[in-house]
Specification:
Blueprint (H helix, E strand, L loop, with lengths): L1 H5 L8 E6 L5 H17 L3 E3 L3 H14 L2 E7 H7 L6 E4 L6 H13 L1 E4 L4 H5 L5 E4 L7 H11 L8 E4 L15 H6 L3 E3 L8 H13 L4 E5 L7 H9 L3 E3 L8 H4 L26 E8 L4 H5 L16 E4 L4 H4 L1 H10 L4 E4 L16 H14 L5 E2 L15 H10 L6 E3 L17 E3 L2 E3 L5 H11 L5 E8 L4 H12 L5 E3 L2 H13 L12 H30 L5 H8 L10 H5 L2 H5 L13 H23 L7 H12 L6 H11 L8 H13 L1 H10 L1
Parallel strand pairs: 1-2, 1-3, 4-5, 4-6, 7-8, 7-9, 9-10, 11-12, 11-18, 11-19, 12-13, 14-15, 15-16, 17-18
Helix pairs in contact: 2-5, 7-9, 17-18, 20-24, 20-27, 20-28, 24-25, 24-26, 24-27, 26-27
């Protein structure tokens, strides 16, 4: 199995030395976690116990595997006790935070500790020599990254790479726990912008991806300057899949827990026992951030600890790669599983990727299916995004057919973390694929939305798949929904295998239509028209605001572009971002995400997503589902050409299509926005009159 060969085979751990951190300072944490990786390279023994979840796993390993704690040390005692394992230290430059990544990479290559200057005096007490001093060496983070690509990358593993965000004011940069694993595996660690705003950095990122030897994996998580779907897509195109491992600590110990079972099992329903009532509504729930190892480590955001877990049919996403990455964690979940719990492969099989973009997609899918079988997960979530061209899931029939062929042993597949009853599903064939109808969130009465769908869609039998957004309290919200829904005789809550087998039987009897749901006026109004008008109105306000910002002089223009939540429109609806206007205008309050030389790229990028949100809202207001970028322009022209000129919209689409080759300036963006603004009142009158 080639995917398995990407990851290390750890010697078995037994006796642990527990290290208790004394400081929450990020630079100190990077030092300690890197030191853990260096020491564990010789023998997996250092376990950093920083959270209650760390204590949970250490206790489980003691009880279930016979692990012992040899001693407990403070982090300072640890560094002194194991100073012989370290061959020196590197000084980082506090002015150029990227040097932290360079120093951590050198920790893996040379076993030099990455040291912030304020910690140097303490490290000197260990007698370690200074081996590298990055102070004053680089003008900025990009120059530091370019040096690292030329001088460090050639010596690192070609099977793994890692993004470690350097923007300390934002949450993504707080996840430093992974450093032990990166150091152990000699992984190149860097932070580079990967989307169209940061073309110079993206070119460097492409060099790193080109140096990988697929199949390869991208670790860590995207920086705050990028969108998740962009980061995943850029890697996928180069044959690299991803694992969300930000905040995932002690993987050099979790990976050294002995594998107790070659194969797991769970009680899949016998297809022959599944009956379908033509008058019923079948509902299945599925909670996941299963591609994220941190979600496996923090007990699914503690939802696994709910006292009523197992008392209702409920799907849990579990990364099948836990089978070799953290077999003890996998064993825990199986050993505590209850009758209603059902395990489902999350996101994209072995990891998180968009298989329609992978040049080695067949290998990836085949090996994902092998891992799914080892972990007894026969149902799977397979996502495919491309936010440059599609708003929701990519409607790529050949890619779906490839998934259905290579995962043909599955009863069915799901997708759609961004649910809509209008998104395309594939209910027929040996392996149906179903898009979620909506996302169930904590703090909501999801049973009301389910009953609305039941009343709006006359199809029977009716099959409704719901993603459950992972948050603390998510399972409790669904448990409350379950108490209400089980009182409805026409509704049956089932696990995903029963759901899919029932769907196949209904399809065989021609009870299910290709589009899955009748598009009734009530459904159209609540899921297209109403949200369309709401999103249009917010997007119109955003367009006026962006036009005003673009007309400012420097430095205020760059500051307003930098702080606003414009880039979030690549992944979130305008209504979501605009519900608190002040929060939208100051979404990135600390700034520092757009460099002056990137301003014109950022302006064009922001303008595109604001205008696309405006157009999608207008199209939806006419009861037309809007997903593909090019079709959105066609539908917009068809519906609204009589009300306003389409030329400025076409012009912006050309900017997007020719991004790499045609220059775009502030003046160009200003002109496009001015033209659209001039005709906005006429468009508003048409949209809001419907």
């Amino acid at each position: 199995m080639q995917i398995r060969s990407i990851f290390p085979f750890f010697p078995e751990a037994k006796a642990l030395i527990v290290v208790k951190p004394s400081d929450t300072d990020l630079d100190w944490e990077i030092l300690v976690r890197s030191a853990q990786g260096i020491v564990n390279t010789e023998s997996p023994q250092i376990y950093v116990e920083a959270t209650p979840h760390d204590t949970h796993w250490r206790t489980f390993y003691e009880q279930h595997y016979g692990f012992t704690v040899e001693k407990t040390l403070t982090d300072r005692e640890f560094l002194q006790a194991f100073s012989a394992a370290f061959k020196g230290y590197t000084l980082t430059d506090p002015r150029v935070i990227q040097t932290t990544n360079l120093a951590a990479t050198l920790a893996g290559l040379e076993h030099w500790l990455p040291v912030h200057p304020r910690h140097e005096a303490l490290i000197k007490k260990t007698g370690l020599p200074l081996k590298q001093d990055f102070r004053g060496k680089f003008a900025d983070d990009v120059q530091a990254a370019a040096w690292a690509v030329d001088n460090l990358l050639p010596h690192c593993t070609r099977k793994m790479m890692a993004t470690q965000c350097v923007h300390r004011d934002y949450w993504v940069a707080k996840g430093q726990k992974l450093r032990d694993y990166l150091v152990y595996n000699r992984v190149f660690q860097i932070d580079l912008g990967t989307n169209r705003k940061h073309l110079a950095e993206r070119d460097l990122h492409y060099k790193i991806l080109a140096a990988m030897e697929p199949p390869a994996v991208q670790l860590g998580w995207h920086c705050v300057r990028d969108q998740e779907k962009e980061w995943i897509a850029e890697a996928a195109q180069k044959g690299v899949f991803s694992l969300c491992t930000t905040g995932s600590g002690n993987l050099t110990i979790h990976g050294a827990v002995p594998q107790q079972k070659a194969d797991y099992s769970q009680n899949h329903i016998n297809p022959k026992s599944v009956s379908v009532d033509q008058d019923k509504v079948y509902v299945t729930f599925y909670l996941t951030d299963g591609d994220a190892i941190w979600a496996m480590q923090n007990l699914q955001s503690d939802n696994w600890l709910h006292p009523n877990r197992g008392e209702m049919p409920f799907g849990w996403g579990f990364l099948p790669s836990l089978w070799f990455m953290a077999p003890g964690i996998l064993e825990y979940y199986y050993s505590t599983k209850k009758s209603g719990d059902y395990f489902i492969s999350p996101s994209s099989g072995a990891g998180y990727t968009y298989s329609h973009m992978l040049p080695n997609s067949e290998l990836y899918l085949k090996e994902s299916w092998e891992l799914m079988q080892h972990t007894a997960q026969i149902c799977g979530n397979m996502v495919n995004w491309n936010t440059y061209e599609w708003w929701r899931e990519v409607e790529n029939d050949p890619a779906i057919e490839r998934e259905q062929k290579l995962l043909a042993g599955a009863p069915g597949l799901v997708c759609g973390l961004g649910g809509s009853p209008y998104a395309k599903s594939y209910p027929h064939g040996r392996c149906p694929k179903v898009h979620s109808v909506f996302i169930a969130n904590s703090g909501m009465d999801n049973s009301i939305d389910i009953m609305n769908l039941v009343n709006e869609i006359p199809n029977r039998p009716l099959f409704l798949f719901l993603f459950v957004q992972i948050n603390r309290g998510s399972f409790d919200a669904v448990w409350q929904d379950y108490q209400k829904l089980k009182m409805q005789p026409q509704i049956e809550i089932v696990n995903m295998d029963a759901f899919m087998h029932g769907l196949k039987k209904a399809a065989d009897r021609n009870w299910v239509k290709p589009n899955l749901y009748d598009q009734t006026p009530a459904l159209r109004d609540r899921h297209l028209v109403q949200p369309g008008i709401a999103n249009f109105n917010i997007a119109a306000r955003m367009l006026l605001e962006l036009h005003e910002v673009i007309n400012l002089k420097q430095p205020e223009r760059l500051e307003r572009l930098d702080k606003g939540g414009w880039q979030e429109l690549a992944a979130r609806e305008a209504t979501t971002m605009g519900k608190d206007w002040n929060a939208f205008l100051n979404h990135f309050e600390k700034g520092g995400l757009v460099r002056p030389e990137e301003e014109s790229n950022a302006a064009a990028y922001f303008a595109f997503y604001v205008v696309w949100a405006l157009m999608r809202g207008a199209i939806l207001s006419r009861g037309i589902y809007a997903n593909n970028r090019k079709k959105c322009l066609e539908d917009f022209e068809k519906e609204f050409a009589a009300s306003l000129p389409i030329a400025p919209f076409r012009k912006l689409w050309k900017v997007w299509e020719n991004w790499e080759t045609a220059p775009h300036s502030i003046e160009l963006v200003r002109g496009i926005l001015a033209d659209i603004k001039a005709h906005l009142p006429a468009l508003q009158a048409v949209v809001t009159s419907e």
